Amino acid sequence: MKFADLHLHTVYSDGTYTPEQLVRESQKVGLSAIAVVDHDTVEGILPVIEAARDEDLEVLPGIELSAEYEDSEVHILGYLLDYQNEELKARLDILKRNRFERIYKITDKLKAIGLSLNPQTVFDVAGRGTVGRLHVARAMAKEGLVENVFEAFQKYIGDKGPAFVLGFKFSPKEAIQLITDTGGIPVLAHPYTIPDDRIILKFIEYGLMGLEAYYPEHSQSMINFYLELARNNHLLVTGGSDCHGDAKSEVKIGSLRVPYELVEKLKEAKLSTDK
């Protein structure tokens, strides 16, 4: 039986695996297909496709778009989109600029509570990646301001922390529309983070086409609930590990894998929308 991991990150956002490492680790655990869904960027897709060109591994292009709904963060996965679309790249450039500005605001807040962190240190940690809070946390650990990434989020930069800054994000409707406009399949990432299931129904009205029912934080009862919700609303189902490499070392590639049949269903949906 063939398996896939449809939620993986690289150094092009906040993961630590290079394209070559991602391909190698995916092959080690016997995956037949993977999806690259870096945060708010498509820059890592082609390098991973190139790294897998001579390997027995299928790479699905994707993205994980950051959105905001009623003061809560929402992530929309986009599968099989046209990642070379110029309008998409232009919209993502706006997000990239705002992510840079957010880092300066976070470090200002940290300074106000007595923690000095140079923004350039964060950018150096991020490298070519889409800079975000995980890079701030790594930089704080590197500079000895915290013991580890977990402490950084728990005490300072988590959603309720004193140095939290809400970044600019699309609305879920905008994110879903951007994905569909570029030929992609919009899927709600880790739906357990949505506080009210009626919100998911609202997203379906916006054009949401799938749910990430299989996710490490989902209990079996939650998985069953989302599978039923998907069936009742004619939605696709996806799943994946959300592996970030060494950044979240407890989550390994393929630690949550799904049947390849789900990849086939994504492709079928893509063909239907392209007609």
Provide a descriptive summary of the structure in words.
- With 275 residues, the chain is α/β, with parallel strands linked by helices.
- The protein folds into two domains: 3-91 and 168-274, Alpha-Beta Barrel (TIM Barrel); 92-157, DNA polymerase, domain 1 (Orthogonal Bundle).
- Helix content is 43%, strand content 16%.
- The protein has an eight-stranded mixed beta sheet with strand order 7-6-5-4-3-2-1-8.
- Helix 1 (19-28) packs across helix 2 and helix 4 crosses helix 5.
- The protein is globular.
List descriptors.
275 residues, alpha/beta, TIM Barrel, DNA polymerase, domain 1, 2 domains, 8-stranded mixed β-sheet, 8 strands, 43% helix, globular
Helices and strands, with pairings:
Blueprint: E1 3-8, H1 19-28, E2 33-36, H2 45-51, E3 58-69, E4 72-79, H3 86-112, H4 119-126, H5 133-142, H6 149-157, H7 172-181, E5 185-188, H8 197-206, E6 210-214, H9 220-232, E7 236-239, E8 258-259, H10 261-274
Parallel strand pairs: 1-2, 2-3, 5-6, 6-7
Antiparallel strand pairs: 1-8, 3-4, 4-5
Helix pairs in contact: 1-2, 4-5, 5-6
